[in-house]
Amino acid sequence: MNSLLSFTPIFVFVGTYVGSGIYFTWLGIEKAFYQVSPTVSILPALMLAWILYKGSHNDRMKAFIDGVRHSDIITMCILFFLAGAFGTVTSAIGSVDAVVGLAVSCIPSQFLIIGIFIACAAISTAIGTSMGTIATCAPIAAALAHSGAFSMTLAMATVVGGSMFGDSLSMISDTTIAAVLSQGADMRKKFKINAIVAITAAVITIGILLFISHDGVMLEPQAASMFLMIPYIFLIALAFAGLNPFVVLVLALMCAWLIGYVHHGYSLIAFGKDIDAGCVSMHEIALLSLLVGGLSGLSAAALAALGRLLERCVGSAKSSKTGQYLIGALVSVCDMCMANNTVAIVFSGQIAKDIASRHKIPTHYTAAWLDIFSCVVQGLIPYGAQVLLASSIGEISPLSVVPEIYYCYVLFGVTVFYIGTQKRLMA
After folding, report:
1. How far apart are CA 110 and CA 107, in angstroms?
2. What residue ranges of the chain have pLDDT lower than 50?
3. Residue 39 is assigned to a structural domain of this protein
4. What is the dihedral of CA 408, 412, 418, 420, to 10 degrees?
5. Are 378 and 337 in contact (CB under 8 A)?
6. How much is the pLDDT for 224?
């Protein structure tokens, strides 16, 4: 099986989902990208990956199950359900409306979207997880979008972009830890390079958001109950304290019930029903994540072929800049296939280390590029967990979100420019 053939299941999945959406858009059908569910689009890709996989049927099933049950995949699914439950419960007790009321009362409308971006960037850097940040901030951004402050696509895209800022920069992010450990790099040196690139990209993104929101709709001030905002304040405080995201969301759920009960007699029966409704709302994204994990397991040969291809490319590379671009390309393609930036970093770590060694690229540079490029791709693929979670909360198509995730596009451009213009590598 040649290298190109190994990648065909991935192409089939993306092509089926995107192609069907474009086709129904051309026909003028409303909600064109909802006509063929992504969970249906991935089935032909899984069938093809099963056929192309070398080995017995038992071997194929093992590869599929290993991908499905990967710890990161299961972790994401549980987080999806808890995030859905928290969003439904806080909406039911009025917490979301309270936060929206405070934001509209205190912040000029044209700056609301910038405030969301900065808040997501700060929270994700502090807690080290983009998924936790999206689960926290997306319901608020969605409520503001419903009130007319900005479009839902811009709201969800900005939440994803701000969340990816911290995912690549935070010292406690799993992607940062994986990148540093895989390369044996100095965390502080890696952070310095990362910060230069990420902050530059964030400033440019804020400028873009300011420009496009200049003519935003002015909203009437609304009443805000600080008491009903306690679940969100409690959630963010626990997250900043460094607790496990599962513990944070469970405790925040209990806090939300208590606040609702004290405020207007929110019963345990209603609480249970809202938890169920929130979990059910996330069933499609959870199932898709499991199937994407299985596809990654069956497509492992494609990634191995990619590694061999890039190793051959290294022999013809002439400069350290070329080597750095190769490292970026390696982890980017791995992330496109695996839809998980941490796993992509781990998988490509040794190959990246070999490229860096041959081109005398300091390990902190390699770690930075592994982290940044994987986060860029993770924030832009419509079947990635971050985009899926945000689009599910906003009840919009993942493909409508991707074009407006300005931070990830800017981060890619700034990184490529930084590599291309650097005169020497800092030791």
Report:
1. 8
2. 1
3. no
4. -170
5. no
6. 56
